[in-house]
Amino acid sequence: MAGVGVDTKIYPREKYDRVTFSAEQGGAASSSMPDYKRYQQERFYEVQTSLTLEEARYSEMRKKIPGLGRVPKDRIHKQDQDIEFWKRKQEHVTFVKQNFRQIECSKFVPKPNQTLVKKIRDLKCHCGEILTEHAGLSNAQPMNNVQRDIVEAYLIPEKLRRIVNRETLFKAPPENIPVVPWSKEEAFRENISTTFGKISFVNNDNQIGGSKPAKYVRLSHKDSVDKCLELMGKHWKIMEPKPPSLCISVIGGAKSFKLDNKMRETFNTGLIKAAKTTNAWLITTGSNVGVMKAVGNAVSEGQSFLWDNDRITHTLRLIGIGPWGYVKDRKYLESDGNGRFPVHFKTSNVIIHGKPVPLNPNHTHFVFVDDGVRNTYTGASEFRAQFEQKVSKPTEAGGLGIPVVLVILEGGTDAIHDAMVSLEHNIPVVVCSGTGRAADILAYAYSHTRSNKGELKPKHEEKLKEKIFDAYGERWKEKEIDENLQKHLKNVKSCMDHRDLINIFPMNKHEDLDIAILTALLNSKAGDTSDEIRQNQLKLALTWDRADIAQEEIFREDVLWPTGSLNDVLMEAIIEERVDFVALILQQNVVMKEFLTSQRMQDLYEKSLARTDSIHLQKLMDRKINTHRFSYDNLAHLLESLMDKYDHDYEEEESDGQNSVKVTTVRTAGQRHFKWPYKQLMIWSILMLRQKMAKFAWQMGSEPVTSAVAASRIYGSMAEHIHRNESALKEKIVEYKDEFEHLAKSVLEECHVKHQEKAMMLAERKSPTWSTMTSLQIAASAENRAYLASVACKNSIDNTWNRGIQSQPSQVLVTVFCPFLLFSSFLEVNAMGEKKAGTFQKILTFYTAPITKFTHHAFLYMFFVAVFTYFLLVDYQFYEITNLEIVCIVWIFTFIVDELYTLLTFPSPTFHGKIRDWYGILKMVDMLNLLLALVAFIIRVIAMETYAHEAKVIFSVNCIIFYLRIMKLYTANSSLGPKLVMIKMMFDEMRMFLLVLFVFLLAYGVASQSLLFSQRDASWDILRDIVFYPYWQLYGELDFEAAMSTDTDCVSMVEGQRWNSTKSRMVALMKCRHDYWLVYILCAGYLIMGNVLLFNLLIAIFNHIFTKVEEKSNEIWKFQMYFLTMEFDNKTALVPPLSIFPHLYLCLKWLARRTCCVKKSKGVQFTQRHLEFLQLFEKEEMANYLRQVKSEQKDSTESKLQKRVEELFKLVEEELTADHGSSSFNQTLGATQTVKMARETTQLDATCPLEPSGWPKTDAVIEYAKKLEGQEGEGVKQDAKDSEDVADDDHVKKDKKKKKKHKKEKKHKKEKQEEEKIINMDQQNNAKPESEAWKDIPTPAWGLQPRDTRNLSLSTRTSPESAPTSLFLQRRLTPQNNLSEDSEDSEENSRVKGQEPYNILSTPARSPRSSNFQVSDSDSDVPRRHRMKKTKLRVESSTEDERRQSKKRIFKRRSRQLSESD
Fold first, then answer.
1. Which of 324, 339, 934, 1430 is the right S-S partner for 197, CB 3.0 to 4.6 Å?
2. 3-state SS class at 506
């Protein structure tokens, strides 16, 4: 609902924003409308406004149906019923008036010392506002002089009324304004808040993706935070449809804040990813400046809407909590007391220093905090801090239990204060270093703090003061410098007291801000070992979908998780399809069989059906079982309709094998466990279309081959019931089906490569997991032709087809005609476990094999067709029934019995499945044909003389079907079998083609007949002529004389008769066919369209079908062979007509089993031991297949390219960091942390052009990296080879280490001697002053830095003459890698978490008195030559160490790559 927080109604911007007609516009004037009609119209409009979006859609359809209006009549006549829309609005207004206040200044007293003000109207009160903007005078409504005098008398003290009044506003203020006391307690007045509603930003309509008005409210800084949260939750519905998992508060710089392109992209991407992942609230001050504008722009890029029926909500909630007095044009947000729904507000990008700032249009909610002060940025910080603390408090303590994290970008002194307050309340802070000012100050303090006590070394503390002064000291007065420095330094140290809650995020690195936020949240409670804290951390990591962080930070080896503590998280991970988390939790001794009880499975279905992504399942359940409510009975009915057979597979109660006594474990219905829990999980995942979770359950479950085929079967059945309008959903389901079919085929082929016989057993196994169905049965029902065409399935089908016969089909054919060959070795038969196949076993094996049955059936059926043909042509007698006719009828009866027996024994689990899979349309035609023959015979018996001719017609039709039935025998041939499918598909397309052809045929036929006959009597001959002649003309039978020329016989007959009148004669002549010239033209056009266009179209369609079938002819034929094999495998050894005898025997046997001779036990093919063996075999081969796929993906070209690009960028980044590390202290952050130096010096800047931000261009960087790789290739290969040889021999490696160590010690000893020698020599000479020595140091050009300066921190040095007088601006130039002075601090900082260095690259200043060297204080009194020599020795030693370390890192990386590839 607009403006009320309900968001469920579509409404106009104003109360009656609809088209009205006046008399000038052609309509009746509004004054002429009666009152009752006007009331009825308003009532109708209010009711129409209250309609939901779905109801409004049908209003246009209702309008076009007679008797119905746009709105149902019962909705209009119910005038006593309050409309929900307006009712909720009134509740909203009442809640704001009862709980929130606004503060106004009621006493105007100008501030002293306003000497620059030229007019009295511009004088500002102590509250910060001018007179005309005070309450009472700032109203938009006009006021007369009397009213204005009354208001001024109330606002202006009596001493000032002579100077300040409406007549003197435009005069210059006097020099001496009377002093009037003013205090907040006396001047400020609290009133009921009248500023609330919705803001529709006028200049934000062009936003991509659309915009939605933002809700706002104005409240006092003393108002309750609880009431504010209640307003947001109850009336603004900010907790719907899903409550947030995180609250991100962003603070930082305002008018001086800027981000370059790279940092902006890093910030936007990370922030939006974090917000969308966790459904987080984002909190700023709401202004359109600085960090707030940057956050708004980021939200604008990632903003979208959630559509739930007619409810529209933002996916990203950006809340602005800012001071009311610092909002530009704030008076337009005020209302008359009932709110503004909405107010059309125009924002601006113009920022004026010292003036209020406009609102950011990308915020979704505004909370304006009013402390009475105007035009000053005060009042909102405390309320915002209270708000964040309330949100972060646990629910037991009265909070919302939502974690809060503070993100700092740049910022002033208030940012440091806010960070201190947040840290004191245990709110973690993420500092985005590299953005400037407050962020860099905190980052520097963090990197140089020893522990959580906030201790800093004196030199670092001095450096920190310098950074604070550089950031904020420009506006300080000289006497305030020391006080402000100590104040802000104290705040920084207070922040460092909670160092474990701070996380430094370098903005110039290729990292993700969302991961930094997650890390900060996890580190905030890292020391707490309570189960609740670990649960919250795990839920955060789950929301972020970062299983890697959870494994490293949460699931540590020293953490013991109580039993059942991970159940809720595991349930959430399954619902959200966090597969990595499910696998990780299962590694923590969580057993799926114990976790997934029947009650949890029911909860899983109920929660899933309540989600919006389960609409497809609800529709499927409504269509199949007429309800979408979950119950296990409904689930069983649904799955039986999808895959024919389903069992819940509850685990049976264990019993004692000796005493057969059941265990007395009492379990409720909700505690029942499943035998195969991963099967249940996979079924749920399939129904919910969670493919990743389904594949995970498939991998973890039993029987991978059969389970994959079953999954494909369920997906296929679901796709059949998807409406054709939902084509995208159907394609998605079919894609999932094909993926599981490919998995089943691939795993089975992997098993076949390992062991052929076991692979065939897997295909033939009756799966206990899937209701004793074989994978072949399920695949045939799902029409998985690719699976049935696999080698293992084909071998299994061939094995069943031959049934122990190992000879060629030609030998079987010969043996059929020469049975005595069974007593010889002509036919080979498998012994099937016996030592040797005997003659009797050989005979039984031969005659029970499906291939033999098929051969007998083929020849006997062709003999039957020949007999029936002879009977129909020769032996059929009209007045008697011959013996041959009786033989044919008996034979047909045995066909019917055989068809019924085959149907009942076909291997499908249900009768419906038997009819669907085997008894298709052709079988139905065949059975109908057989029954029709029996009917014809019965007719002959009853009324032979009367219906003898009709019976022969029926027999003639039977003969056609009998001949067509011969094509069924072609299925056994690999060439003819697919042709049958091809003919069927062509026949279907030809039916569609005839519908098109029939249009042209009728059009030409009707037109030609109407021209050939001027007049004609009604008869069926007209329809015959319309269709008959055009149809045969398509085949070239034009017959112009009989079809289009004049009928001379008819004309002669009319002329030869006598007629009473000429009119009668002319009418008779009109009924004769007459030649007409237009008919020939129409015939030519008809033949061109029919013969040339349509027939060629049909040929093209047939060609497409032929190509399509020919490509998959092998799969089609093997699919056909499965059904043919199963059919003849279940037939009796004797075929019709002899099959009647075994059928009678089987019928009697069935009756005996049903009555007296009950079979005691039923044998099984595989026992439990066999099944476990096969399952272990296929699980192993599935694992091998998955490893192979993973290896192929890893070794793919794309993966290698991506890995290589990452290595190149890392290398380039190291080189750039080293080369640009000499940028000045004012421009970079090089002095805030220890710079990590690269391996060697390059001249990258000389070859790579730079961007405005200081980074080289991407193309040039890549080219340079490739060149550098080529130069280092030979050396790296040689180093890797040498290191590999050393690694093969441990003794040699130790010897070399000793030699290197000895050589290094010798070298250092020699360097020390030379250094002492130089010192002794210099002591004998007169050293120059430090300033002169500094002047003689040459300035290296950019891009030509000396090679020995790589390990020095380079910064701009000012000359002694230009040194600042302030103590806090003196820069001490010290080497950052000084081993002697900073060794202790470096060791301590190396143990600090998150101390990875950061840097921003920029071009150093070129000054004639600047140097890229830094000289330590300890060397300031040493002569110039000694200092240069000492520096050179230190650099050479450090460079050599760096080079050795670089080689070691390269060797380790290459060795790791080789091991991974192996």
1. 339
2. strand
Helix (H, G, I), strand (E, B) or coil at 320: strand
pLDDT, residue 1099, reads 93
Q: Find the range with the poorest average confidence among 422-431, 855-864, 922-931, 1414-1423.
A: 1414-1423
Read off the pTM.
Answer: 0.71
Q: 3-state class of 868 per DSSP?
A: helix
Task: Fill in the amino acid letter for 368.
Answer: F
> Residue 1351 — very low, low, confident or very high, per pLDDT cuts 50/70/90?
very low
Pair type for strands 429-433 and 404-409: parallel
Question: Residue 136 burial by CB count (10 A; 0-12/13-18/19+): exposed, middle or buried?
Answer: middle
Measured distance CA(467)–CA(440) in Å, rounded:
9
Strands 305-308 and 281-284: unpaired
Helix (H) / strand (E) element for 462: namely: helix 458-472
Q: How many CA atoms lie within 13 A of 1325 on its CB side?
A: 13
Upstream peptide bond of 241 is cis (omega within 30 degrees of 0) = yes
Cα–Cα distance measured from residue 582 to residue 519, given in angstroms and rounded to the nearest whole number = 21
Residue 325: count other Cβ atoms within 10 Å of its Cβ: 24
Q: What pLDDT is stored for residue 526 in this prediction? A: 56
| H-assigned helices in 823-975 | 839-848, 850-870, 883-905, 911-917, 921-942, 944-964
Q: Report whether 1152 contacts 1144 (CB < 8 A).
A: no
Residues 494, 452: contact at Cβ < 8 Å? no
Contacts of 1313 (CB under 8 A, 6+ apart): none
Q: Judge whether residue 478 has pLDDT over 90.
A: no
**Residues 537, 543: Cα–Cα separation, whole Å:** 10
CA distance 231 to 97: 12
H or E, element range at 624: helix 615-625
pLDDT digits (tens, 9 = 90+) for 1249-1261: 555 444 455 555 5
The answer to whether 294 and 261 have CB atoms below 8 angstroms apart is no
Say how far apart CA 989 and CA 1003 lie, in whole Å.
Answer: 22
Could you give the CA distance from residue 316 to residue 121 in angstroms, rounded to a whole number? 43
**Poorest-confidence range of 376-390, 817-831, 1074-1088, 1438-1452?**
1438-1452
Strands 311-314 vs 305-308: parallel, antiparallel or unpaired: antiparallel
- Does the CA dihedral 654-660-665-668 come out positive or negative? positive
| Residue range 1199-1254, pLDDT digits in tens | 667 777 777 767 776 665 555 443 333 333 333 333 333 333 334 444 455 554 44
Tokens representing 530 are: 């309570």
User: For residues 383 and 221, is the Cβ–Cβ distance under 8 A?
Assistant: yes
The C-alpha angle 397, 403, 406, rounded to 5 degrees, equals 120
3-state helix, strand, coil in the chain (%, to 5): 60, 5, 35
Coil, helix or strand for 139?
Answer: coil
DSSP annotation of 175: S
* Mode of pairing for the β-strands spanning 188-192 and 101-105: antiparallel
Q: Is the pLDDT of residue 573 over 50?
A: yes
> Can you say whether the dihedral through the CA atoms of 1266, 1269, 1273, 1277 is positive or negative?
negative
Q: Tell me how far CA of residue 1341 lies from CA of 906, 1228, 1411, in angstroms.
A: 90, 19, 10
Those residues whose C-beta lies under 8 Å from the C-beta of residue 92, and which sit 6 or more positions away, are: 3, 4, 5, 235, 339
Smallest CA-to-CA distance from 792 within 851, 747, 837, 822 is with 747
Three-state DSSP class for residue 773: strand
Distance CA 1187, CA 1175 (A): 18
Peptide bond into 342 cis (omega under 30): yes
> Could you give the C-alpha distances from 578 to 349, 571, 574, 584, 1343, in angstroms and in order?
43, 10, 6, 10, 50
d(CA 1125, CA 1130): 9
SS (H, E, C) 194-225: CCEEEEEEHHHCCCCCCCCCEEEEEEECCCCH
